[in-house]
């Protein structure tokens, strides 16, 4: 049974998370401050941590470096992109803003537990091939030149080929690769990416799902 440590001083959110996680079969531990979390971690090693940033005593920013080797998802009310980027660069596996959808959080937990080693470096979808190491994209035999934002968008769509990704999901996931993308510019970047793919392949590979977000289209 996977152990998950919730580090959050909000009792109501912690109780809700514990109930949801235990229902999914996880073993849940709780810490209500940064200091308490480090004390608990000195004797127990969880498989994953859910970390709030605004904690009494030691802050989440101070606790994160002590969680080296433990996949950590930051769950915070801080929505500023700079906070997200700094936490991801500091070693967080993911960043989820409050309020959050529990189904989305459970999915992100499952991905984090699978680990980075499970992520392929070469992704394929129909005629599209994307190499995350050398950062190239080909459609059939033709290489396509993408901006960093377009590359990041396509990568995350290809990593989730059957899933509709909401705008907030895309913005969260590409924040580390391209922190300059905003909600207001996201539609433009997707439109440009769709156009470049269409010019080479003659077809639309990205579908807009009204009111939700975007997904790949076979």
How many H/I helices? Answer: 8
CATH architecture of the largest domain: 3-Layer(aba) Sandwich
The helicity comes to: 25-40%
Q: What is the strand content?
A: 15-25%
Supply database-style keywords.
alpha/beta, Rossmann fold, elongated, 12 strands, five-stranded parallel β-sheet, 218 residues, four-stranded antiparallel β-sheet
Please provide a written account of the structure.
The protein is elongated, with a radius of gyration of 19 Å. Helix 6 packs across helix 8. A five-stranded parallel β-sheet has the order 2-1-3-4-5, sandwiched between helices. A four-stranded antiparallel β-sheet has the order 6-7-8-9, with helices on one face. A three-stranded antiparallel β-sheet has the order 10-12-11. Strand 3, helix 3 and strand 4 form a beta-alpha-beta unit. The two termini are 37 Å apart. It is 39% helix and 22% strand. It folds into two domains: 114 residues, Rossmann fold, CATH 3.40.50; 97 residues, Arc Repressor Mutant, subunit A (Orthogonal Bundle), CATH 1.10.10. The chain is an alpha/beta fold.
């Amino acid at each position: 049974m996977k152990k998950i440590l919730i580090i959050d001083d909000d009792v109501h959110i912690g109780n809700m998370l514990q109930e949801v996680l235990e229902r999914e079969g996880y073993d849940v531990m709780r810490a209500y401050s940064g200091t308490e979390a480090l004390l608990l971690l000195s004797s127990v090693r969880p498989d994953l941590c859910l970390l709030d940033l605004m904690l009494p005593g030691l802050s989440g920013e101070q606790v994160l470096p002590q969680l080296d080797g433990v996949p950590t998802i930051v769950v915070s009310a801080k929505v500023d992109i700079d906070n997200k980027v700094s936490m991801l660069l500091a070693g967080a596996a993911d960043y989820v803003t409050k309020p959050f959808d529990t189904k989305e959080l459970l999915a992100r937990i499952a991905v984090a537990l699978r680990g980075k080693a499970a992520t392929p470096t070469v992704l394929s979808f129909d005629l599209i091939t994307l190499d995350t190491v050398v950062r190239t994209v080909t459609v059939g035999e033709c290489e396509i030149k993408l901006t960093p934002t377009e590359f990041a968008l396509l990568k995350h769509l290809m990593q989730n080929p059957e899933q509709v990704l909401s705008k907030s999901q895309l913005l969260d996931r590409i924040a580390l690769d391209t922190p300059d993308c905003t909600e207001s510019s996201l539609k433009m970047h997707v439109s440009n990416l769709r156009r470049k793919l269409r010019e080479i392949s003659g077809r639309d590979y990205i579908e807009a799902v009204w009111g939700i977000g975007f997904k790949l289209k076979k």
